[in-house]
């Protein structure tokens, strides 16, 4: 659709951060990568699709921020004094950021699709997508929603056992 093309049209590269299990540091890697790219003068967005554990708003100290609507969808939260990192997370949509989200497949998949299509990212050099742990429907939904766009690739975060 036109909205899908326009909301991601200004995004040059999309990068998925994945892992086979939880607790390996995906959100930390996503956050540090965004900060490093910003330091290098890049325009960066983070899409936090970890619906059950949205930790990036807290890592970037914007957990009390609210998401607003504009004509082209949701306006991401801009982080830092220079507002150089755009962030969208389920954490902004919960009444209490520590609330657990217990949603079944169709509702989760619809929200992920909405996050991909309905966030007004503007012009970004990189969009970093922080995914939930494992390999689930959320990953398939994310990749399917992003399929029409040029994916840069994926970072697989692992830890030795």
UniProtKB/TrEMBL annotation:
Protein name per Swiss-Prot or TrEMBL: NUBP2 factor
GO molecular function terms attached to this record: 4 iron, 4 sulfur cluster binding; ATP binding; ATP-dependent FeS chaperone activity; metal ion binding
Taxonomy of the source species: Eukaryota, Metazoa, Chordata, Craniata, Vertebrata
A biological process from GO: iron-sulfur cluster assembly
Pfam families reported in the protein's UniProt record: ParA
Coiled-coil segments on the chain, per record: none
Residues spanning the signal sequence: none
Gene3D superfamilies (UniProt xref): P-loop containing nucleotide triphosphate hydrolases (3.40.50.300)
Keywords, sorted A to Z: 4Fe-4S, ATP-binding, Iron, Iron-sulfur, Metal-binding, Nucleotide-binding
GO cellular component: cytosol
Organism in which the protein naturally occurs: Struthidea cinerea
Matching InterPro entries: Mrp-like_CS, Mrp/NBP35_ATP-bd, P-loop_NTPase, YlxH/NBP35
